[in-house]
């Protein structure tokens, strides 16, 4: 049994979905009857809708249920084209997808601009509006009586019979799921997951949060439009009731039950929900209860839905069959891999002030961090170190003062633009998205380098392949340098704290930043990890980068820093070389005194 499993695992990953699609295409040969083929058709149509929800909700984290309205847009576009005499199914699918995309963009812009729960509310009202919009255009849509009189579908002049419609639905679903997969495994799919984890992280990597959210939401609309066009041509009749809350909740239940952060989970979820729809036709009033139960089972009991259960089963079988990464002991950094030269930029902060209400967090702080040097920023808790980093990164707006990098002002630039200008950072609490590997986390740092659009990702164009090759090659180099190469394929979020901190350094480093801001990168690390970190930070400095180190570990600061700036109560208390700072009486009293006092309290 395990040998069979090991043999199956040697097949390429696309072999299983392709075999499943071939099986579905072959179903009519077995004469399974009308009900079974109708069930497959409706399940695949629903799976298209659900896959859109997986992109926008599961991968991009946008809480919205507007897919039902986009489904309606695709269906009515196809229906009206058909009643106007345009019967080509290809035309209907393209037009349906575009109509849904337009609805997605038009409703996504205000919903996302307003932020917070607005998108959820906008999409909720969008679904409520479907019958009214259909009524307003009654002449074309048939209003609440439904749209009838559609002509049978054709393809390039050939009239499609019911059996051909079945094949068309399977082919459209198979092509869409291949596209979906290509997007999800590309850097765009990783970007969606970064955004879902934290908009702050996304903008610190140079991603425009608004544009990435809108893209995820709008792309999620397209398969719903395809589904609508297929449904219209399957039934040749449309009623506004099809697109109401029953569908919206059913699609949500299918997404959660199948596993919203998965590609093929949409098919499992849709299959189960469609089976429920068919079985419960006599007790239709109970179907919402079933959907509620599915949501609970998928969201609470299974955690990750059916796809999550299958992933775990695969992992267990792999372990039993001895497949996958062997446990490799932690590795030291690879000194044979040379750090590429980095062109650092001088960071200059002049008379910078920032208050939070009555709390003056920074007052007239000026400092310079030079390329090829490590500038440490130390000071007691609450002295304003992180506030300074957040001002440099554009997460906070200064009250007064200047911030320049390589002579260019960044004081008013947005955080994603500042990141694209070459300022990279790590966070006090590492921000690592769940569900992606160590290698993918590092690659996410290159999202704004070497642009490769969605279309090239979908089509796997030569340009996309070159960019991917560079991403992989650079990630391998950086993982070697940071001693994480043996963990490249492990799930990043499961790493211990020390490795997650190093992973953040690796993600920042892959961008070859002009300025690297390290926010308490050594906190919580053991001695070995601190040594490794120190060696990596020295290499980054020697490569030419401007390094700013915010750190409480005074010994590490003394060992690493070229210059030290001491902050206290929002102002600069002292500045100088490590020897000067160590000998400074005010620093001893106001900062080191505090540290020693704290140490005494901890040890007593
Ligand atoms: N977003 C915020 N809203 C209100 N007050 C804030 C905010 N961020 C920081 N502060 C306040 O600004 C002051 C400086 O905080 P900051 O986090 O910059 O200090 P720090 O030197 O980084 O401290 P630590 O070493 O504990 O991280 C503190 O009084 C803090 O409460």
TrEMBL record:
Cited PROSITE patterns: ABC_TRANSPORTER_2
Coiled coil: none
Membrane protein topology class: Multi-pass membrane protein
ABC transporter domain span: 347-594
A GO term, aspect molecular function: L-isoleucine transmembrane transporter activity
Pfam families attached to this UniProt entry: ABC_tran, BPD_transp_2
Keyword presence, Acetylation: no
GO biological processes: D-alanine transmembrane transport; L-alanine transport; L-isoleucine import across plasma membrane; L-valine import across plasma membrane
Cellular localization per UniProt: Cell membrane
Name of protein: Branched-chain amino acid ABC transporter permease
Biological source species: Rhizocola hellebori
